[in-house]
């Protein structure tokens, strides 16, 4: 039995398995530039974040209707439940859909319907986190937040993702301030491929409450000390880091260093359909590769509940 846990770093578009991609392509009359599921899977070989993002955005063309988004999220939640996930905080990238003519309401309504269904049928609680694409203009992020206003009852927070280098958190100061004023929680990808200073900016400029990835904080001991003192959670994604060549091998992953520095570390799957495994696979992978003892694994799982945007009653029930 998989250990009960929360998943806090998961892009719903990154759960699109090749089989579902082909099914949705057929349903929507879309021609994919791959002949088969096997050929598509063979394309999942990446040299860096951008090489992954190119395929990730291209495959999203199969997602068109509210039902497509509901089916995508339902498939993820079923797999997550089987991997011990009791609570999931799910990122979505509205600009990757609105830029193709899919309305934000179609995306949010479809996802929210599947989340509600899974709460009833699987007992998984969940949240939606709207991510801004950092390689798009800041004005577009603000327009995205404005267009999300009618749907904020279904959205817990905002995040920042996509190509990191050259797109510092500073660029999104205003939109994060507006999100905060609207009562939204804040997270940001930082220190994945980008420098440790982006982690500092995410905290100081965006008011980020968690850092997604954050592994490069280790290059700055003062920052590590601050993350420890302020107990800022890191949502670390080991399989992703290996597949996107942030680290060379799982055996060399800095997870033990982050834990050893006293940080609130969690283990997550990022884009499990692309990176070779869901959250329990990641946890089991690092347990074996890094020889983690059972208490450390239990602490990682407890951290996932501590770092979640949960009300205290549900947190106490889960921890
Ligand atoms: N979008 C989906 N996965 C991502 C990642 N690992 N980093 C940045 N943006 C992403
Ligand atoms: Zn991510």
TrEMBL record:
It holds the Pfam family A_deaminase. Binds 1 zinc ion per subunit. It is an enzyme of class 3 (hydrolase). Belongs to the metallo-dependent hydrolases superfamily. Adenosine and AMP deaminases family. Adenine deaminase type 2 subfamily. The active site is at 192 (proton donor). The keyword Hydrolase applies. Keywords: Hydrolase, Metal-binding, Nucleotide metabolism, Zinc. Its cofactor is Zn(2+). One of its GO terms (cellular component) is cytosol. Its EC number is 3.5.4.2. GO terms for biological process: adenine catabolic process; hypoxanthine salvage; nucleotide metabolic process. Catalyzes the hydrolytic deamination of adenine to hypoxanthine. Plays an important role in the purine salvage pathway and in nitrogen catabolism. Zn(2+) binds at residues 9, 11, 189, 270. NCBIfam families: aden_deam, PRK09358.1-6. Residues 4-319 form the Adenosine deaminase domain. The record marks 213 as: Important for catalytic activity. It comes from the Bacteria. InterPro entries: A_deaminase_dom, ADE, Ado/ade_deaminase, Metal_Hydrolase. This is Adenine deaminase. It catalyses: adenine + H2O + H(+) = hypoxanthine + NH4(+). Substrate binds at residue 271. GO terms for molecular function: adenine deaminase activity; zinc ion binding. Gene3D superfamilies: Metal-dependent hydrolases.
